[in-house]
Structures are given as C-alpha cells and as structure tokens.
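User: Can you predict the 3D structure of G-protein coupled receptors family 1 profile domain-containing protein? Sequence below.
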Amino acid sequence: ELVVSNRSFTSQTTTPDITCIKLSFRLEGGSKRSLSTGIYTLLYFCEAVVVLLTVCGNLLIVISVCHFKQLHTPTNMLILSLAMSDCLVGVFVIPAALTWMIESCWLFSALYRMCFTFMSFFLTTMSIFNVALIAVDRYLALSKPFMYNKTVSVSKMCIVLLSFWILLFFYNIVLQYYIGSFDGPVMCLGNSYFIWSMVDLVLTFVLPCAVIIIFYGLVFFIAKKHATAIRDLNSQTRTQTSKNMSDSMKSERKAAKVLGILVSVFLACLFPYFVYTVLGNVIEIEEKQLQQLLMLVYLNSSINPVIYALFYPWFRRSVKLILTLHIFYTDSTLINVL
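Assistant: Sure. Here are the predicted structure tokens for G-protein coupled receptors family 1 profile domain-containing protein:
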C-alpha cells in the first residue's frame, strides 16, 4: 500500500515519468473489524469528545472576541482568525480523519474525500499563516510600540486577515487542481505533482516557519531587554509615570510569553509531519504513521483553547459570562473582562 500526502491508495501503475494511483474508499465486502464492539464504542466516544472540545472551545474564543469591545484589539483579531480556522478544522477535518484512523480505510464518498483534502490543506495553511502574523504582530508591538499603536488598527488588521483568507483559498484550489485531487478515484502523479508539492512545502511551511522562528527569537530578545529596563526603572525611581511604563512593558512581555507558548506548541505539532513528508522522498511512507502525524497537526486545533484557558484570565471571565448567558444582558458588550 502506498501513501502520498494525506491520502491512502491501494493500486499503482508506473511509467517512466508518471505514477497512477487508485484510491481506496471502503473496506472490502465481508471484512471484519479486528477490535471488539466495546473498543470501537470507546474510540468513537473519544472522537466525539475531541470534536466537541475543538469546536466548542474555539467557538467560545470567537464569541468572546466578537462580543466584548475590550477585546477588539489587532492582536485579538489574529487570535480570532486562528480560532475560526481551528473551529472549521473541528467541523470538517477531525471527524473524518479520526474515523479514517479508527476504520483503517476511507468510508465516505469520493466527493467528500475531495472536500476533506481541500479543507485539510486550506485550513492548515491558514493556521500556519495566522501564527506567522501573530509573531510579526508581537515583534512590532514590542520593538516599535508608538508606531504600532499609531498605524496598526483593528480595521486594518481585519483587511489583512481577509486578504489572506481569500488568497489562500484560491491558492489551495489551484494547488489541488494541479496535484490531481479533483481527478476522482485515480490520480496520476507526474513531474508536475512533485514540483507543486515542493513549491507548496516552501510557500506554506518553510517560509512561514522561518518568519515565526526569526521574529519570535527577536521578540524574546526584546522581552529580555525590557525585563532589564523594568528592573532599572524600579530601582531608580518610583514615580507614577515610571510605574505606568513598567506596567505597560510587563503587559506586553506577558502577552509575548503566552503567545510564545502557543507558537511553540503549534510548531511542535507541525514539525514531525512535515519532516516525515520531506523524508518520504527517500524512505517508504507508512499509512499508520502518516495518519498519526496528521492527527497531531489537527489536534493542535484542540489544544489552543486549553492554552487560552490556562494563561488568559480574560478568556476565563468571558467563558463564565457566556455560559451564564450574561452576554444577552443590555450593554453586555461593555462588561470589563480584562
């Protein structure tokens, strides 16, 4: 059995320049499950828990940022965009991916397979670019705070994010067309497939990850300088002005730290899959291992709400207000959640 990208295949025909692969969608007639009914029930229960955590957790982030005016900041627009892509992963990608792992085959239609593949590529790419934008945003906020506050607004950030969503949507349609994902159950992988795969690897992983690593390296270097400056301010003077400046710098450092944790977890989930994909050119790719690494990428969408809940007090307060239905009160958008 051969596996290419995140799709499973069963039969293969090779010519000097082209490899044609037929996709397998269902179990062969009469095949029996290797696990007991109780184990399958437990596995599907765990799948439901993961899907609910991903969808509901990210939906709470979306509602919080959209509803409370105090949270309408450029940085939170990036968090909103990331939560939206994570929520869509929970709706369109994780259920099918987990079912595929549990059943060891694709049980759905060819049309749904195409939609699954497209959404998987598109939403994963959007998440990577969201995290890269967060890294750039934190760098500008810490290195050039006056310029950042003057030039970066919520409306401008929304325009940038909308542009990325539209561009990446059409880019992934073109990508799926050229790599043959829309060709039905038979894909012929010629030179164009491997060229587009390498182009996609560079554009949607290597470059964004380079941006993330470089800018977050700069962020922590600046944060270290700020920590030194805060200590000097506190030791030399106790005026109100110095206290306000110290509090502002501490707030920015804390935001950088929390988002740094989010970025680190994101890269930890992403790197194994892409390393395995690159090594797939020289070693045999096994379906089970590839599925597990893909699930690690998808499960990052479930982890993000947990990170927000642990490190963002405003998220915990917002969730409490949402679950107690206080958001339906008059002027609830003005409630202090910070």
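DSSP finds nine helices and four strands in the chain. The chain has a mean pLDDT of 78.
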